[in-house]
Amino acid sequence: MPDNSLLDDFKETEIGPIPVDWEAVVIANVIDDTISGDWGKENNDEHPDWVHCQVIRGTDFPAVAAGQLANVPERYVRPSSIKKRQLQPDDMLVEISGGSKYQPTGRILRTTPQILANAHLPVLFTNFVKLFRVDRNIAESSFFHLFWEYLYSLGRTRIYEKRTTGIRNFKYKDFLANEIISLPSLPEQRCIAYVLSTIQRAIAAQDDLIAAAREVKRSLMQRLFTYGPGSEPAPTKETEIGEIPEHWKVVRLGDVLQATQYGLSVRADRTGKYPMLRMNNLDDGRIDASDLKYVDLDEGDFAKFRVRKRDVLFNRTNSYELVGKTAIFDIEGDFVFASYLIRVAPDSAQLLPEYLNYYLNWDDAQRRLKMLATRGVSQSNISATKLKRFPIGLSSIAEQEEMARILSAADHKIEAEEQRKAAFQALFKAMLHQLMTGQLRMKEVDL
Question: Fewer CB within 10 A of the end CB, N or C, for the chain?
């Protein structure tokens, strides 16, 4: 029979066991002040005295949290609004309207001194956001912010989300009145926040390393497809596609392909025999099999649409920004592909699949591909016929192999940094749970 007794140093509360020296407090009792936002106006033509400022939306939260305010909208508001709503260090902003299916409302942003130091104008917040100020006598703002993130990660905010005419609204008053925060002493709150923010800084540092590795790859692609893979830049010539090495030639893609093939026009579901690759499964030149749908096929159709190792898949229909995405199939498994994709089969005597994949994902090639797209209301299309007419720079097989090797090494560097980030994220998630439930105590940290 299981032992349901609590450990001596824990007590039972309405949210479960917490350390005996912690307090379970309704979140509303931790809030000192609540302020509604102001979207202001686009200009001050009718009100010359209105103040130029930046106004944070819920969609701006991730960038602002990283200290990036360049894309925060600039608006004009009344001077009285500036006085009432200008953000201060440790203010809490909560998104109360907006969100999406996979991103509930209730996200929180804490305004740090570093964030505000990056602003060149007064910073306010939109009417789709609420400002909370925490009672500093009982809660550290940094701890409160992290505890709210913990509740958000558990899906607690989603319980209080209502939909009206397609908009998601966070019933924040109900959330504040019903949800409980467990509060250790202020010194322990500071210790917990210090530990977790240290891990968050490590994650942010990894983001910088990933961005730097991606920039190195972009620079390598520009160099390789302009000057070749030699240790010294090759003499170049001007062509219809720009500057390329003198000894390369410009060819139509269709002239160096064995075949092109459209994918399956059948409905996929969450269950079925064969996973079907769709446009969302093409990510930065690789196959992302994390979100799959499935189809049932007879053996004849499976054989016709089965994806084979080193097949190149081209996204022919998508938004204008994403049409033309390309990836090489390099994973194990019996996959087929959907109708919005084109299988591109190179003539391996002239064109390596790996080289083609990198070439089509090169920024310059992507720009030229989009010029081929037929634009619709919400989607754009590049047909197989247009794709086969697309001009590319073609080198020898030996040079293609060398360029693919160099860019593959760049990919491995990016993947290694992404794996380190994933490890830090897993550590943060585990530590967040253990620290917020008192399973791990942090009573003394030299701050």
Answer: N
